[in-house]
Predict the structure of Glutamate 5-kinase.
Amino acid sequence: MSTQSQAEVRRAIAEAHTIVVKVGSSSLSGSSGHLDPERLRGLVTAIAQTVRMDARVVLVSSGAIASGFGPLGFDARPTDVATQQAAASVGQGLLMSHYESAFSRYGLRVGQILITARDTVQATQYRNVQRTLNRLLELGVVPIVNENDALASNEIRFGDNDRLSALVANIVRADALVLLTDVDGLYTAPPSEPGARQIHYVPNVLDALDDVRIGGTGSSVGTGGMVTKLEAARVAAVSGIPTVLTCASNAGPALMGDRVGTVFAPIKHRGTSRRLWIGFAADPRGTLVADEGAAKAILGGRASLLSAGVVGVRGEFSSGDPVLIVDEQGNKLAKGISGFDSEEVPATLGRTTAQLRKLLGAEYAHPLVHRDDLVLL
Ligand SMILES: Nc1ncnc2c1ncn2[C@@H]1O[C@H](COP(=O)(O)OP(=O)(O)O)[C@@H](O)[C@H]1O
Ligand SMILES: N[C@@H](CCC(=O)OP(=O)(O)O)C(=O)O
């Protein structure tokens, strides 16, 4: 795909039929960190106008914790995970009730989808999320997605919603991703630093952004800062989806393709979304060591990783978790989704599928990592 000009990318965003809009906690809360319903209503007005022009919008919204800690009697956003989860549990319902009433002023219905990181790597869960989102969009509903904070386990969670929004953009095959935050774009350094300049166009987000210093959150409520926003823009770009990053008050102009914020050009044609996600964003929970033959087979393309070709396992993981596959020299070959729990793996090492059936039963007679769940690095 040849690199598009900034004007072409902006036009593609203006003409997008399916759009994922992500709004961060920092854009929905006031200086105290509590949810500010006025800000939420401003965002809803911009989205409603877009939907009225026949676009389909999925809103990925943070703000559950910001909505919940005040009603629970805390002055500031809690820092321990258990209290954050409790605040999210209280706040998610409150957040949705604000969205419900704000969108209903425009005659629009909303539907809540809460996702855990695990839902996005397991094939059946992934397809479920995809089917529900698509049906909601067909029905003219604005799906509102958040991480299922109350249940997300600490080890495998998104934490921020930036990467989740890129994944959702993949799932619904969006034409554009709009990341709304508390700064009006990507700067050459955290914007609080003197001399930081705004960048308006990034033609290839995979190129090292050498002269850009990327920092974490600048607020007391945000989570990932610019690091996770760039990760999201990268996942979108390699999925063929353009991204615009700007502040929430620019939502309307950004959706119209006006010259606000920073735009990131798509750099590839669309890939198949789930495998792309496995390769790009899933954090491996363990490692499988492939012998020479298995390494060769995997590198050749369409082969599964069979127990017969595995000589070692490291880390603790469950069936369905992402794992790294390395060769005996430690070279990283691929990422994939494990078909076994880590504690089951030693008993399967070196066994053929027929032996697995005989020794352990038919339910174990499958590859350690199926080729559909495996992505070369
Ligand atoms: N190079 C950079 N350009 C712009 N913002 C940056 C940069 N590095 C760090 N940041 C910080 O990232 C923050 C946005 O991330 P975050 O606080 O996580 O927002 P959100 O809640 O919207 O996800 C900005 O307020 C800014 O302080
Ligand atoms: N899922 C959490 C969001 C965590 C968070 O702060 O994310 P973000 O503001 O997008 O960096 C919530 O709803 O409070």
Remarks:
- Residues 73 and 87 are 10 Å apart (CA to CA).
- The first helix runs from residue 6 to 14.
- The longest strand covers residues 18-23.
- The mean pLDDT is 89.
